[in-house]
Design a protein that fits this description.
The protein is mainly α. It has one domain. It is about 80% helix and about 0% strand. The chain contains three helices and no strands. The radius of gyration is 32 Å and the shape is rod-shaped.
Amino acid sequence: MTQRFGKANSTNDRHRRWRAKMMPSVPPGSTLIRIHDCADDALWVLAAVSTLLFLYSAVHTFPNARLIAAQQRQDAVGHESRAFCEKQGMAFGTREHSLCAADLVDIRANEHQRTLDESGIF
């Protein structure tokens, strides 16, 4: 008996006995058995590749996605603050505009804290 994919002969013997018991009408070496073996091997390879892709996503992609989303939120808040302060007649780059933007940051922080307090999270 030969080894296949590093499996021991006893494993092949057990597999062969199981196959003979479960599929008694299929002769050994038939096309159906070869298709079953190929599908079985393909599914194990698919499981291994899926596991590797999941681990890659968990380690690399998901943390980067959170960082990108945080940066996008920060940019949106900056644009909103600038637009609001300019709408109130404060030119960008002036002291009044900077104070307006700082006040908006405080208002957002207070609102965020009120939301957390109401939800009972912190």
